[in-house]
Specification:
The protein has 337 residues and is α/β, with parallel strands linked by helices. It has 17 helices and 5 strands.
């Protein structure tokens, strides 16, 4: 079984970003200047795995092309280097910029922390790097369109190439992470309790890691596998629980939108007008409540967990293929949250 840390780059939510960056890296190594974007930007919430993904890319490039010059640095280090060079003398400042321009690969993390003046200096460096077809990969915890404090010139530069999102993990990936990590600890926890925990927390891997540590510590203290009641006590503190949302409130909201009653969704009806709203309620209940698959199924007339899981996957597939339905579900989720 794979170690938990190796899973961080193999979640389905991260597949597109991982494959896209791998392709950029391969084309860069082959020196195919017209086939790769000289600037790529990766964005996602804190703890989503950006640093690990970018570090993996750097190692892959160096493994096949050891003569490449690479540097991976945080925006705070970039800013400090600029300040130190400026305080020394003008020659040092120009030397630093030239060194950054000459790097074959520059990875700069957390650019949302840059100040406007430093961002403008970076824009000039990026212009020179792009002209030389040197590869630059930037990361930020917020979407590029929300970096409103920066100049148009800077935003125009960083969004001129490949833009990739690294989204937070969904319920199934959170469950997988928790299972593998706790297994590596030798920590036992009931399946229903683990499903509840995966539905409770947000998708940050950093937070998931912290939660696993707390669970492991509690198991060692109690000397037995944890039940859901144990976890509810452990995490029943401000900041750990989501806003209380019940499956009843979700069914009511979805029912109003589709003009059907919540009771009709609890029947065995296979009418299309009933099936889709029922599946959406199951999907939203999985995302927004701490209920296990079994508990959600019980609300719908005693359906088993595999039926609920199938419904969730069905809705996820529809979201990717149906723009109208995707917008409807996003609005429902926003109204409920």
């Amino acid at each position: 079984m794979a170690a938990p840390h190796s899973l961080r780059l193999n979640f389905p939510e991260h597949r597109l970003a991982r494959l896209s960056l791998d392709r950029v890296g391969k084309l860069f190594v082959l020196r195919a200047p017209k086939r790769f974007d000289a600037i790529s930007i990766l964005y996602g919430p804190p703890g989503s795995g950006k640093t690990r993904l970018l570090g993996s890319l750097c190692r892959k490039i160096l493994k096949v092309s050891q003569n490449k010059t690479t540097q991976m640095m945080r925006a705070s280090d970039f800013c400090q280097s600029l300040r130190d060079a400026e305080m020394a003398n003008r020659d040092d400042f120009e030397t630093l910029q030239n060194q950054l321009i000459d790097l074959d690969l520059l990875v700069l993390e957390d650019i949302q922390l840059l100040k406007p003046r430093e961002a403008d200096i970076l824009a000039r460096i990026l212009d020179e790097r792009t002209a030389r077809r040197n590869l630059t990969i930037l990361s930020t915890s917020i979407a590029p369109g929300q970096l409103t404090k920066f100049s148009y010139r800077f935003i125009n530069r960083i969004t001129s190439g490949l833009i990739l999102e690294l989204p937070a993990l969904g319920p199934e990936s959170r469950l997988l992470f928790l299972e593998r990590k706790l297994e590596s600890f030798g920590t036992k926890i009931e399946t229903q309790a683990l499903e509840w925990l995966a539905g409770l927390v947000e998708g940050s891997m950093r937070r998931l890691q912290s939660i696993c540590n707390r669970v492991h510590s509690m198991v060692r203290t109690l000397g037995r596998p944890l039940k859901r009641a144990d976890l509810e006590k452990l995490f029943a503190t401000p900041g750990h629980l989501k806003k209380a949302i019940s499956v009843e409130s979700i069914a009511s909201k979805v029912g109003k939108h589709f003009r059907i009653t919540p009771k009709s969704m609890q029947t065995r009806s296979r009418d299309k007008e009933i099936v889709l709203p029922r599946q959406i309620v199951m999907y939203l209940a999985r995302r927004l409540t701490g209920m296990s698959l079994q508990e959600i199924g019980e609300f719908f007339g005693g359906r088993d967990h595999s039926t609920v899981l199938h419904a969730c996957k069905k809705v996820e597939d529809e979201i990717g293929n149906n723009i109208s339905l995707s917008g409807t579900i996003r609005q429902l989720e926003h109204d409920l949250a």
